[in-house]
Amino acid sequence: MEFADKVAKGNEDDLSRENMPISFAMHQCLQDIMNVKVTGGLKLLFLQSKCIELLTLQAQMYEDAARSTQTPSLIVKPGHDTESIYFAKEYLVQHAAQPPSLSELARVAGINEFKLKQGFKALFNNTVFGYLTDYKLTQARDLLVANVPIKDVADRLGYSSVQHFNSAFRKKFGVPPGKVK
Question: The domain 131-179 is classified under which CATH number: 3.90.76.10, 1.10.10.60, 3.30.420.10, 1.10.10.10?
Fold first, then answer.
């Protein structure tokens, strides 16, 4: 509330002295800002709303961190643990169509499953497979905007069926894939 009061009065303030990682939702919001398609007065409204969304996501992350009894630094030590989790994320993204199991991913990254799960939550504010699902569905949205057929998108991203893809897409974005253009 102190931060919100300062912003409302037009004063500058920092949310925290420490930088937090960029969550998947923040990354997606930044991508939306950089790839804005609307023009004119709607563009300004769109950009303002995305900036507010980004600020809200950041504030929520700081609130969650402040409320948490176990800080990310206690879960994931800087150095090997953090590097292993970032490596696991990159490996997961590279193998998104046929993802490894949690134990395989932990083995490949050189970290135990507990640290992998807890570290993913701390660094990316998401579970391992929640992050993968968000990544795949964002890729799907981009492919659909590029007019790739729904069946091809579902196949390319490793969904077992078009129906499963449709349901996951609708749950994430609130619209069926056929409405994305």
Answer: 1.10.10.60
**Maximum CA extent, the chain:** 52
Residues 6+ apart with CB under 8 A from 174: none
Give the sign of the dihedral formed by CA 6, CA 7, CA 12, CA 14: positive
User: Is the entire prediction scored with pTM above 0.70?
Assistant: no
47 pLDDT above the threshold of 80: yes
Can you tell me the distance from the alpha carbon of 8 to that of 155, in angstroms, rounded to the nearest whole number? Answer: 48
Q: What DSSP string runs through 43-92?
A: HHHHHHHHHHHHHHHHHHHHHHHHH-SS-HHHHS-TTHHHHHHHHHHHHH
What is the model's pLDDT at position 72? 45
Q: Spell out the domain ranges in the chain.
A: 1-67, 131-179
CA 30 vs CA 23, 52, 136: distances in Å:
11, 12, 17
Q: DSSP string spanning 87-132? A: HHHHHHHHT-SSPPPHHHHHHHHTS-HHHHHHHHHHHHSS-HHHHH
Nearest to 139 by CA among 93, 90, 88, 86: 93
